[in-house]
Amino acid sequence: MKPTIEQWIKEKNLINTGDRVLVAASGGPDSMALLHLLKGWEKAWGLQVMAAHVNHGLRTETAVEDERFVQRWCEEKDIPFFSTYVAVEKEMTEYGGSVQGQARRLRYNYLAELMQEQDIHVLATGHHADDQIETILMKQASGRAVLGDVAMRSIRRFKNRLLVRPLLAVTKEDILDYCKEHGISFQQDESNLSDKYTRNRFRHYMLPFLKEEDARVHEHFQQYADWLTEERDYIESQAEKEWASRIIKQNENSVTISTKGMETLPLPLQRRGIHLILKYICVNQIPELSVVHINQFLYLLHQNHSSATLDWPGNISVTQSYDTITFAVKNIDEGVKTIEPAVLSIPGQTLFAGAAFSAQYLQDETLLEGEGKEHVLVCRSDDLTFPLTIRPRLPGDKIQPLGMKGSKKVNRIFIEKKIPIEQRLNWPVVVDAVGNVLWVPLLKKSIWSSSDLQASDNVLIVMECTGFSEDENGV
To answer: In this structure, are 59 and 179 located in the same domain?
Structure first.
């Protein structure tokens, strides 16, 4: 086993001379064998080998025994040891998710913080060839391999550092034989025997059958994973070129693409571009999507509705608004915030959502330049109930448009004017004290707008709105 692993490490360039390597040590045979191997190469390779153990709080006495076992083993071998406790069940109560999913998230968060504190560049885990087969089968069965990694990578970026898997070239049987040959003791996790976990079911029923069919099945699966990964990386490089030309705007939390011309791309490039967008906006962890999510996006891309929104894993929203689609990370802590209403100062200037409203009284028949434009509203003061307020649209808001009979919903105006959904939230609406919608700036004036001024008119209110346009966000 040792020569196979050494060749694998060198072939994949997993560990280099002088690296500080942290081994995620559970106490099981896999991680203990890995610790033993790397410690044996420490002097020859100039390594600094360390170990970290995470107690997930799922087992009481046995979990404590595992931690103490690893600690004693490391002390005997002069290996720096670190450990922590994480409350998986508490996290599940507060945030949901699966036991194994939350355990993995908390474990890797701790390891990343530890590597930062100790200036460790490489994290090594004990995943082996049998784990790889199980992972590939699980992802294929659930549809999660459609866009995400089809298998575990032998090396990948991890929080600006590296995560490596030196044992992927050997099987569980190889590892147990190695432990027996070198007298390496280890702990047994009883949860590995339970069929309530998905991975265990694949391990107990699928893996024995495959190995019975071909003893080298692990090599075939790894070759399949390597080739598919290389081909996927190539397709994604082509997709990146095509999608980049269709990005309208982007920031750290969202990317908006134009759907025009997207339909002409080959279907593989339409699908692969999604993963590239998620890699950009998902800093911490890219959510795994299934075939269901990809088909949802393709439907959104090719259907003719004016707007629609998809909610994806990882707090990702995918929103279609006319000829654009926006991928965004939702802020679950702050939620969606609307701007507080502002009373219009007359005379004076009032700010709302980046727009400036200048208002004044006019007591003669002088016509202000621009009175007929969409950014200016003139009203007779006798027709209004004061004070006037600028606020976001409320559900059910209606306006009686100038020159029309009856009323129209303000939201319908947004739709007709093709205002993107994200802009509608805080688009200013001017109302009087009894709730009459006087004006939706730039879009629609009400019957209270004075289009024909007469010398006999009473005091007029002149409002001018500047500082934003239909093409801008954040209004």
So the answer is: yes
Residue 30 annotated in ligand binding: yes
What is the rounded average pLDDT of the residues 68-92?
Answer: 88
pLDDT (0 to 100) of residue 19: 94
**Looking at the predicted structure, is the pLDDT value of residue 368 above 60?**
no
Note the pLDDT tens digit of each residue in 320-363. Answer: 888 889 999 876 444 446 688 999 988 888 888 778 888 888 76
Query: Is 83 marked within a binding site?
Result: no
Domain containing residue 449: 342-466
Query: Is 0.70 topped by the overall pTM?
Result: no
Hey, what's the torsion of the CAs at 289, 294, 297, 302, to 10 degrees?
Answer: 180
Q: Phi and psi of 394, rounded to 5°?
A: -110, 150
- CA gap 379, 368 in Å, rounded: 13
29 shares a domain with 8? yes
Same domain (yes/no): 364, 242: no
Answer yes or no: do 151 and 282 share one domain: no
- Rounded to a whole number, what is the distance in angstroms from the first to the last CA of the chain? 63
Which of 113, 68, 63 lies closest to 284, judged by CA?
113
Considering the domain architecture, whether residues 255 and 188 belong to the same structural domain is answered as: no
441/427 Cα distance (integer angstroms): 8
- Do 189 and 166 lie in one domain? The reply is yes
Does the annotation place 214 within a ligand binding site? Answer: no
